[in-house]
Design brief:
284 residues; alpha/beta; Rossmann fold; UDP-galactose 4-epimerase, domain 1; 2 domains; two-stranded parallel sheet
């Protein structure tokens, strides 16, 4: 079996490669791809095949996917262009005779989350191509929040517009492990997995966890969505990015990031990690 992992220079793709190795997939059966192959040198030293993969360069896709059985198509970061890019990659996988495992967003076909629009478009394009597929609709990573803990501590607050909405988060590594489980077993074609942590949390509970493990006062402060976008702009984010992130909180408030399927824990074969442990580890 030959497996290609796109986006292996990013967090999720790298973790997926590590999960495949941990599952006993021979290094030579894995192709780790990304735009900057030099960032994959350590994997190459371990016997993993590396390849330049640029969603905008069809030649790199054709070369990297040659002989592949399965392609983990990790969603890109070129917002506004991702459907076109992902479709090109899925088409190249199809031409190579490989199936596609695509990392999507929760409830991509029905959610109002702005971040999911291109995921919905990609899923539709993959279905239209007729390439064998599995959709991994990844919920939120704890790592969406834990790198911000120093800011929470500096200001004594977690700012948000999520109200009492709940987030079914899990460690990014567990989503990568779920991808590896799908890539190394059969019976997943045509399946859509809604992935999220076994337990959920509000942003107020996130603030309380940070306070507990840091010993400092941290509270949740609710802002209007437009106000949160302005704060994010003030922190240096481009206005469109700030608006999209603020919209995420609106989606949380609407219950669109609470995932109760249990798909993630079933795929990894154990309960998912807890927010409390993630916060404690980040503060250690």
């Amino acid at each position: 079996m030959s497996v290609v992992v796109t986006g292996a220079t990013g967090h999720l793709g790298r973790l997926a490669v590590e999960s495949l190795l941990a599952k006993g997939v021979p290094a030579g059966d894995i192709v780790a791809g990304g735009r900057s192959v030099e960032k994959l040198a350590d994997l190459a030293e371990r016997g993993v095949r590396t390849a330049r993969i640029d969603y905008d360069d069809p030649a790199t896709l054709a070369e990297a996917f040659k002989g592949a059985d399965k392609v983990l198509l990790v969603s890109g970061t070129d917002f506004g262009r991702r459907v076109e890019q992902h479709t090109a990659a899925a088409r190249a996988a199809q031409e190579a005779g490989a199936s596609v495992v695509y990392t999507s967003a929760p409830y991509a076909d029905t959610t109002s989350l702005q971040l999911a629009v291109e995921h919905r478009g990609t899923e539709e394009a993959i279905r239209a191509l007729g390439v064998p597929f599995t959709f991994l609709r990844n919920g939120w990573y704890f790592e969406n929040y834990t790198p911000q803990i120093p800011t929470y501590l500096e200001h004594g607050a977690v700012l948000g517009s999520a109200g009492d909405g709940r987030v079914s988060g899990a460690p990014r590594a567990e989503y990568a492990e779920a991808a590896a489980a799908v890539l190394t077993s059969e019976g997943h074609e045509g399946t859509v997995y809604e992935l999220g942590g076994d337990s959920s949390f509000t942003l107020a509970e996130l603030a309380a966890s940070v306070a507990k493990h840091s010993g400092k006062d941290v509270v949740y402060t609710e802002l209007p969505v437009e106000g949160l976008a302005k704060v994010l702009e003030g922190a240096g984010l481009p206005a469109p990015v700030a608006a999209m992130l603020a919209d995420t909180d609106r989606s949380i408030r609407a219950g669109e990031l609470e995932v109760t399927t249990g798909d993630l824990s079933r795929l990894i074969g154990r309960p998912t990690g807890s927010l409390d442990d993630a916060v404690a580890a980040a503060l250690a």
